[in-house]
């Protein structure tokens, strides 16, 4: 599981910027601008599709979507700049998407297409787990005498 640093110290932030520069030849300013534009674009696509709902839980940066610039550091790779998008969907479920900038920059259209292809199955799986947990809780409640 990658370690995600939301408020990176100067060294980690610099190393993440250097990684992006070495891999894509971008300056730090270009990396920052690309991160903001990419996060905004993804959030707007989510909103256009009607996926996020209004929420008090997350800061509304772009519509109901909270956006944070992060550094993702995995054990075997260099730190990479990334974006975290957080929002709530129907059923009061919170969603957090951590997106590596370099993966997104390689094929933005493909990345968004794949993201949307994965959101529906993920939601179905979460709803099934939630329903199974509710059924299990009801069975335990009944087995213990229904609260008597």
Which outline best applies?
elongated
* Whole-angstrom Rg: 19 Å
Query: How far apart are the termini?
Result: 43 Å
Q: Give the SSE order as H and E letters.
A: EHHEEEHH
Assign a percent range to the helix content: 40-55%
* Main β-sheet description: 4 strands, antiparallel
* Alpha-beta classification: alpha+beta
Number of strands: 4
Extract low-pLDDT stretches. none
Neighbour order of strands in the largest sheet = 1-2-3-4
Count of DSSP-assigned helices:
4
What is the averaged pLDDT score? 80
**Approximate strand percentage:** 15-25%
Compose a concise summary of this entry.
The chain has helices at 10-24, 28-48, 101-106, 108-143; strands at 3-5, 66-73, 80-89, 93-100.
List the helices and strands and how they pair.
Blueprint: E1 3-5, H1 10-24, H2 28-48, E2 66-73, E3 80-89, E4 93-100, H3 101-106, H4 108-143
Antiparallel strand pairs: 1-2, 2-3, 3-4
Could you please describe the fold and organization of this structure?
The longest helix is centred in the last third of the chain and has 36 residues, at 108-143. Strands 1-2-3-4 form a four-stranded antiparallel β-sheet. The model has no long low-confidence stretch (mean pLDDT 80). It has helices at 10-24, 28-48, 101-106, 108-143, and strands at residues 3-5, 66-73, 80-89, 93-100. The protein contains four helices and four strands. The chain has 148 residues and is of the alpha+beta class.
């Amino acid at each position: 599981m990658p370690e995600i640093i939301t408020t990176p110290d100067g060294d980690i932030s610099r190393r993440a910027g250097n990684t992006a520069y070495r891999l894509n030849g971008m300056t730090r300013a270009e990396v920052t601008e690309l991160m903001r534009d990419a996060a905004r674009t993804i959030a707007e696509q989510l909103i256009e599709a009607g996926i996020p709902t209004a929420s008090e839980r997350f800061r509304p940066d772009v519509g109901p979507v909270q956006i944070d610039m992060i550094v993702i550091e995995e054990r075997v790779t260099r730190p990479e700049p990334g974006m975290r998008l957080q929002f709530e969907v129907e059923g009061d479920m919170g969603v957090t998407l951590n997106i590596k900038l370099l993966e997104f920059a390689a094929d933005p259209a493909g990345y968004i297409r794949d993201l949307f292809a994965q959101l529906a199955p993920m939601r179905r799986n979460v709803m099934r787990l939630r329903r199974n947990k509710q059924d299990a809780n009801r069975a335990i409640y009944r087995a213990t005498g229904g609260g008597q």
